[in-house]
Amino acid sequence: MEVQGTVRESEPREFALPVDSEHKATELRLFSMAPPHMRAFHLSWFSFFSCFVSSFAAPPLLPIIRDNLNLTATDIGNAGIASVSGAVFARIAMGSACDLFGPRLASASLILLTAPAVYFTSIASSPVSFLLVRFFTGFSLSTFVSTQFWMSSMFSSPVVGTANGVAAGWGNLGGGATQLIMPLVFAIIRDIGAIKFTAWRISFFIPALIQTLSAFAILIFGQDLPDGNFARLQKSGEKQKDEFSRVFYHGVTNYRGWILALTYGYCFGVELTVDNIIAEYFYDRFNLKLHTAGIIAASFGLANIIARPAGGWISDIMAKRFGMRGRLWALWLVQTLGGVFCVILGQMGSLTASIIVMIIFSVFVQAACGLTFGVVPFVSRRSLGVISGMTGGGGNVGAVLTQLIFFKGSKYSKETGITLMGVMILCCTLPIMLIYFPQWGGMFCGTSENKIATEEDYYLSEWDSKEKEKGLHQSSLKFAHNSRSERGRSKVNSSTMPPSENSPTHV
User: Alpha-carbon distance 69 to 356, whole Å?
Assistant: First the structure.
């Protein structure tokens, strides 16, 4: 598609939150529902939460399901892999869809397309059908990309890490909540009078219904950008349609996105893996009751209520003092500590010690997820969705590979698999050291004294001269001005910044 026309500034309007020159909020008020910023925040995290509940509704009931469907260890391993593999390419596609059509339509459409798979879980009758419903349900995890895109479109540089961390963390909370919800729903249905092999099937109607309702809420109440939806803004000329080929090209040719995809595979990918195996691990290793194993397993996912938001908050705090280099250092350190505690978890032989180490491990690995998406919004302005999709897809690739290598069949015991998974975390975190921004530096070196680069140089390089003549680069120019805080406190204070571009105001 061809980009035509010029960019028109949106008319001044009022917002409940202070905003920057792009009308992105410079504050995050968790207990507010003010449109459009905080309404988008709550819609995004809850819809992602519902998809997480659906995708991991089966693991806490596996001891019942495996008896009903005669599942072997290999069948269970394959189903676990299937549940996260479908979203690998779906997340990249979701990123592109967000760039072109907006997060509102992209996320709601995917949620509605995958909801039937959750309903159909209730009629699974064989290992193959069980694998297929888990595979198609897992596509819904791609709503993570629209969640992060939406938050990066609604919140400004000083709080974008926190906004991304809280929204994704509360969404990921579904992985822990489902460990409590599904055994409880199963028990209630069974106590009403259904036999256990019927009760587990009826249970899946609850997450399916919640997921469906969340999609309609997004369509009815959501808004793509602070100034409106993509379709309206494009029709009015305030936002121009971009070319998919150029958006995709600038995303996949940015090496920083590939490194973040790899490292995210061993924080979020590990989280997905643990969500799939942890309940069964405690049930079998320590001979626990199903409900007890579910409660312990839930504590891993429930740590998201504070851990991932804390990672985003730490990223923003480090950036205020040390700039982008602070974000990178914090990400590397926290994810490395997550790997260390994962190794230790695999060596624990007592129930109490295993629970304590698992909780510590969960905090670090989930905080690393929040720290990752404190960096992602700054990799590319034009291809934000593609970069978010690449990184999110990397998380699913990591989950697939980890489960395929360490938790498929009986090659490794689960405790050995957990130990080796920790070693993989340590190794795959090292490439963070290679990330370098010419305008901000990297972990070990600052900006070059011989070639001084600015934020404008970096973000406007994604637009050619003809596109600049049409004014299509204006949004990137505003973003570059608002990203100068990534230089760190000392450099920002010593630099000259346009007062009209960097001052948070109520517009």
Answer: 34
Handedness of CA 437, 440, 443, 448 (dihedral sign): positive
Predicted local confidence at residue 251, as pLDDT: 92
Structure tokens at 493: 């204070």
Of the candidates 55, 63, 54, the residue with the CA atom closest to the CA atom of residue 280 = 63
Distance CA 395, CA 264 (A): 5
Tokens in use for 378?
A: 């700054």
Q: What mean pLDDT comes out for the span 422-439?
A: 96
User: What are phi and psi for residue 225, nearest 5 degrees?
Assistant: -130, 165
Do 443 and 435 meet the contact criterion of CB atoms below 8 Å apart? yes
166, 163, 149: which is closest to 308 by C-alpha?
166
- Cβ contact 151:44 at 8 Å: yes
pLDDT band at 504 (very low <50, low <70, confident <90, very high): very low
Average pLDDT score, the chain: 89
Instruction: Identify any residues that bridge with 228 across adjacent strands, giving them in sequence order.
Output: 225
Q: Beta strand pairing status for 441-442 and 436-437?
A: antiparallel
d(CA 200, CA 65): 7
219: left (phi over 0), alpha (psi -120 to 50) or beta: alpha
110-136 burial, b at 16+ Cβ within 10 Å, e below that, comes to bbbebbebbbbbeebeebeebbbbbbb
Q: Which two tokens stand for residue 29?
A: 């008020």
Work out the pLDDT band at 176, boundaries 50, 70, 90.
confident
Residue ranges and CATH numbers for the domains of the chain are 37-226+256-442 (1.20.1250.20)
Say which amino acid occupies 488: G
Nearest Cα residue to 376 out of 171, 173, 168, 227: 168
**pLDDT tens figures, 41-65:** 999 999 999 999 999 899 889 989 9
Say how far apart CA 245 and CA 383 lie, in whole Å.
11
| Residue 506 backbone dihedrals phi, psi, to 5 degrees | -90, 110
Beta-carbon count within 10 A of 69 CB:
18
Please check whether residue 282 is in contact with residue 297, taking contact to mean a CB–CB distance below 8 angstroms: yes
CB neighbourhood size of 506 (10 A): 9
Strand, helix or coil for residue 436: strand
Q: Where are the alpha helices (DSSP H) in 21-61?
A: 37-55
Length of the chain counted residue by residue: 507
- How crowded is residue 263: how many other Cβ atoms within 10 Å of its Cβ? 29
> In this predicted model, what pLDDT tens digit does every residue of 313-356 receive, in sequence order?
999 999 999 999 999 999 999 999 999 999 999 999 899 999 99
